[in-house]
Design a protein that fits this description.
- The chain is an alpha/beta fold.
- It has a single domain, classed as P-loop containing nucleotide triphosphate hydrolases (Rossmann fold).
- 27% of the residues lie in helices and 20% in strands.
- A six-stranded mixed sheet has the order 2-3-1-4-5-6, sandwiched between helices.
- The longest helix has 15 residues.
- The chain binds guanosine-5'-triphosphate (GTP) and magnesium ion.
- The site of guanosine-5'-triphosphate (GTP) has 24 residues, from helix 1.
């Protein structure tokens, strides 16, 4: 028997993107966090409080790598977890990415090849670890964000952009 995770928001990103760290600052969950890939091997769930006594569930899933949809790395053992999330939050780390757009496209392609229905869900993009950038660099990177997806720069460590991110997520989850 397999247990699938039910969550409103699923965190999608390469290993080390800062998924578990975000979950740890937005919820009471205490996932393991470390500066090496594949720290998270099983999904962690957290309840995120939102204003007005509302809340939603966030799932931190293991990192996805290029080729995952073909079974590479830990493959679709991970991808299956996001099938039941209503919103997908793509996470790209500001400090190590070659191109935010390219990284998002790679992640999207893996999801699409695994299950095209994942393209029907609302996609949001968080550029993480924004505390590693100066404002000039942020301005540069903002010019090259992927189109057609709501994006935000956040820092879990410096607690930046998190309220705005929650607003975006709540809007994407939509009224029940
Ligand atoms: N500077 C900075 N570092 C961060 C931030 N968020 C996470 N990190 C660091 O990035 C590294 C990876 O963080 P994790 O949260 O474990 O990343 P993950 O995406 O869960 O990684 P996997 O579980 O391996 O897929 C850790 O060393 C964190 O301390 C941030 O906002 N700013
Ligand atoms: Mg993790």
């Amino acid at each position: 028997m397999e247990l699938k995770v039910l969550a409103d928001v699923g965190l999608v990103g390469f290993p080390n993107a800062g998924k578990s760290t975000l979950l740890s600052v937005l919820s009471a969950a205490k996932p393991e966090i470390a500066d090496y890939p594949f720290t998270t091997l099983v999904p962690n769930l957290g309840i995120v409080s939102y204003r007005g006594g509302k809340s939603f569930v966030m799932a931190d899933i293991p990192g996805i790598i290029e080729g995952a949809s073909k079974g590479k790395g830990l493959g679709y053992r991970f991808l299956r977890h996001i099938e039941r999330n209503s919103v997908l939050l793509f996470m790209v780390p500001a400090d190590t990415t070659r191109s935010i757009k390219e990284e998002y496209e790679i992640l999207k392609k893996e999801l699409q090849e695994y299950n095209p229905e994942l393209m029907q869900k609302p996609h949001l993009l968080a550029v993480t670890k924004a505390d590693m950038l100066d404002e000039e660099l942020v301005a540069e990177m903002k010019k090259e964000l992927p189109e057609h997806i709501p994006s935000i720069f956040i820092s879990s460590v410096a607690q930046k952009g998190l309220t705005e991110l929650k607003d975006m997520l709540w809007k994407a989850i939509g009224p029940e």
